[in-house]
Amino acid sequence: MFLCQLHNISIKLDFGKKKRNTERISLYIHDAENQCFILCARYSANPKLRKRGRPTYPDNQGCIAKGWENSEYFDNNFPSAPKEYTKYTQGKYNMNNEIIKKLYSKSRLYGVIRIEKDDKYLGVLVVESTTKNRFKKNELLEEMQKHKQILADTIYLLRKYIPNPQNMKERGF
Fold this sequence. Notes:
Layout lengths: L1 H11 L10 E9 L4 E8 L12 E3 L3 H9 L1 E4 L6 H12 L3 H6 L6 E9 L2 E10 L7 H10 L1 H11 L6 H6 L3
Antiparallel strand pairs: 1-2, 1-6, 2-3, 4-5, 5-6
């Protein structure tokens, strides 16, 4: 279900039409007990960018944390040179060198919105691209905001069925 919603958003954002499939969209659910995000769904027209990285993401690191804290966030200033990319990410996003080295996709643009319902913070929607200037800030965040309510309603209704470390353990996985 979430994958279909992400695919629909990707169509609105013309994924795969410009700059050769450099975009992906991900939905992360917040696990308040463990202070982290869990990847719930991801879509990209590029199979390599669909790959999952870490099973959880701390809620105090990266662009995800900035969007979580501020309701929305956009950064299109990531350098292309590896050393500068690492320095920028360490300084701005509370990420250490080991984590940065393991990032599969060294995205250069991020757009993040927080998903919430009835004063409950549920997760974040993240659009990223390995191409700088792939999206304009206002256009990207506005399109993401259009889908926020349906995502919030779906997460809210299905929350107890969405896998997380605790319920997976309870189910014997």
